[in-house]
Amino acid sequence: MTPADLSLTVLRAVRRAVDENALRAPVPARVRVERTRPGGRGDYASAVALQLAGPAALTAREVAEILRERMAGAPGIGRVEITGPGFLNFTLDASADVRGLLHRVREQGLRYGHGDALAGEATALRHAPEVRAAVTAHTVGALARAQGAHVDVLCDGAADPEWARLGIPADAPGRPTAPVTEIRPVPAGATAGELLDRLGPDASRWGLLRPAGHDRAPLGGELLVQGEANPLFLVRYAHARTHALTRGATLLGITSAPGEEPAGPTPAPRTRALLTLLADHPAVLLAAARHRAPDRLARHLEAVAQAFFDFHDAASPLPVGDEKPSAAHRSRLALAEAAGTVLAGGLSLLGISAPLYL
């Protein structure tokens, strides 16, 4: 269950309570849920009961009790608790959560996390005739289109022919027909040709997009280092490693199968960390589009890659030593493959290749 799924579940409980006349309050357009802070109860929390208490002429705890009754046993939710003045705390059903998440990633593939949250929105992204601005504008356009928006990208001056080698298509001609947003990151301090000669297209794009737009982009030889200290290498190596696991599993006659094991009733911390990041991927893509911040996606991919290696080291998806293939290995392999899919999909939106071998 993703945060968006949980938000809809809580919203349905509010509507049901209002329809049953147990709660006399306006139904909000959306319900906000957040991850609990360290030391808190459950996986997620919501303050919706505090929001509804005044209009309902009830205490927040009374509203929370009404909503808890209507969420008990909801698919994907293991437990609902009330804390403090009336916060609702949710512990997810780990096994259902894992199966549902991995099935969604498998079914949607590289489009996992794409959606229609920005459907109906139209914007024109205008950038200076400078390589970092051009790469950023076109990447923001790709992120927004993946959420259903209509986007044109316009350049203030003549485009550099070398931009095509960075995968930048021609900008939309003519005057904008939608509200204009200026894309003005700190300039790269080098031309596209100079970056391509030194770094190639993938390292150039990562170096331009990974820092926040208001920060200077480090564009040195560290982007080409073949080691885990280089975030770009870490992300692409993690992706390649997931495919190596699938190839190894095929040789052993093992196929991936999403099941209860890699989480079980109480997921191991490293497993849960990876699952959490995969579940957060749709929200990260939407936030990166809304805030015009591709660096958010790049940092998220780094976190997924590191969490994958932590998970892999703690619980190998392939048999080790005298181990025999088991359901546990099939489940772990499914989680590893989901991580690879998320990494490949994220890199694609950044315009960066995801090699199968490194």
Number of strands: 7
The CATH first-level class of the largest domain comes to Mainly Alpha
The CATH homologous superfamily of the largest domain is called: Isoleucyl-tRNA Synthetase, Domain 1
| Strand residues, percent | 5-15%
Can you tell me the CATH topology of the largest domain? Isoleucyl-tRNA Synthetase, Domain 1
Brief characterization of the structure:
By secondary structure, the protein is of the alpha/beta class. It contains 10 helices and 7 strands. The protein has 3 domains: 3-92, 2-Layer Sandwich (Gyrase A, domain 2); 122-221; 228-349, Orthogonal Bundle (Isoleucyl-tRNA Synthetase, Domain 1).
Your description of this structure?
The chain has helices at residues 3-19, 48-56, 60-71, 94-108, 131-145, 192-209, 231-252, 269-290, 294-314, 327-349; strands at residues 34-35, 44-46, 77-83, 87-92, 122-127, 150-155, 180-183. A hairpin with a 3-residue loop joins strand 3 and strand 4 (87-92). The model has no long low-confidence stretch (mean pLDDT 91). Helix 5 packs across helix 8 (269-290), helix 7 runs antiparallel to helix 10 and helix 9 packs antiparallel against helix 10. The protein has a four-stranded antiparallel beta sheet with strand order 1-2-4-3. A three-stranded parallel beta sheet has the order 6-5-7, covered by helices on one side. The chain is α/β, with parallel strands linked by helices and 358 residues long. The protein is built from ten helices and seven strands. It has three domains: 3-92, Arginyl tRNA synthetase N-terminal domain (Gyrase A, domain 2), CATH 3.30.1360.70; 122-221; 228-349, Isoleucyl-tRNA Synthetase, Domain 1 (Orthogonal Bundle). It is flat and about 65 Å long. 49% of the residues lie in helices and 9% in strands.
